[in-house]
Design a protein that fits this description.
Layout (H helix, E strand, L loop, with lengths): L4 H4 L1 E4 L5 H4 L2 E5 L11 H8 L7 E3 L8 H10 L5 E3 L8 H9 L6 E3 L8 H10 L5 E3 L8 H10 L5 E3 L57 E3 L7 H10 L5 E3 L8 H17 L7 E3 L5
Parallel strand pairs: 1-2, 2-3, 3-4, 4-5, 5-6, 6-7, 7-8, 8-9, 9-10
Helix pairs in contact: 3-4, 4-5, 5-6, 6-7, 8-9
């Protein structure tokens, strides 16, 4: 019996497809580095230029991947639903912006350890990838609150967001609690009196993030080792009322007040979600 094209597509793991397989492969999973030279950037670029039906691609085992290869993937695999570029340190904003320019139907995107990525490409992901339900941005040393605020504002379908070990993230990256009141600047009469506070960095002048909506779909949020305070936790549990897993290990600036906010949110969720069976709140405030 002759199989249809849809039935004949398949998954390949930890090897590159042959010429015969290139037109049929749908899922390419390269998690484990092959022998020396198995997954070079040149080989990947040639492969992606010949694989038009790819839907999911994992390249965590191909750290030599460059922007050129990601551009070819975006141009060829027009039905790409998922992409894992973890530890592909040669990839930059150039490759990621090409993904967003092609309006691909991405539902999950994993960019852990892609250390050259900056705010413009992450903001572009938030604003253009409207179908995203999973986004992982751990270990990105250049990520700032600017792009994370866009994620809260535009990525309304997200169920999982991971931001662990991003050293520049602060409370400014997250929704502000409703009770936040900005301090008034002291009045200065006749040129006398205390001078107003001068921000030490440009991040300090970013206003609080006030959202007109709640993030109803978010279930998992990982903020391990981020420099956030109790105020950020207040805002998060208020704007993500259905969150089930909140990971705050290594957030050493948190105090007992953050725990109180989480407990209040848990009780509120339990009252409103009659089918709720489990809420996993993982906390470790360090030494």
């Amino acid at each position: 019996m002759i199989q249809s094209l849809h039935e004949d597509m398949f998954r390949i793991s930890d090897k590159l497809p042959t010429e015969e397989e290139q037109r049929r492969v749908r899922h390419l999973i390269l998690q484990n580095p092959g022998e020396d030279g198995a997954f070079t950037d040149d080989k990947l670029a040639l492969t992606f230029s010949r694989c038009p039906h790819l839907e999911t691609v994992v390249l965590s085992g191909a750290p030599e991947t460059t922007d050129r290869t990601i551009v070819l993937l975006a141009q060829t695999a027009t039905n790409l639903h998922g992409l894992n570029l973890s530890n592909c340190v040669e990839v930059t904003d150039v490759g990621l912006l090409e993904l967003t320019n092609k309006s691909l139907p991405l539902q999950w995107l994993i960019l852990n350890g892609v250390k050259g990525l900056t705010d413009p490409s992450i903001s572009a992901v938030a604003k253009t990838c409207s179908r995203l339900i999973e986004l992982e941005l751990c270990d990105l040393p250049l990520l700032t609150p600017v792009s994370v605020r866009d994620i809260w504002s535009y990525s309304r379908k997200l169920r999982t967001l991971r931001l662990a070990n991003c050293p520049l993230l602060s409370d400014k990256a997250f929704p502000s609690p409703p009770s936040l009141v900005l301090p008034e600047e002291p009045e200065v009469e006749d040129g006398e009196g205390p001078h107003p506070h001068q921000p030490t960095t440009w991040l300090e002048i970013i206003p609080p993030l006030i959202l007109p909506h709640t993030t109803e779909n978010l279930r998992v949020l990982d903020l391990s080792s981020c420099k956030i305070t109790d105020g950020a936790v207040d805002g998060i549990v208020t704007h993500a009322p259905r969150i089930q897993t909140l990971i705050l290990s290594g957030c050493s600036m948190l105090t007992d007040r953050a725990l109180e906010s989480i407990y209040r949110a848990v009780f509120q969720v339990a009252r409103s979600c009659t089918e709720l069976r489990c809420v996993d709140v993982a906390l470790d405030f360090g030494a």
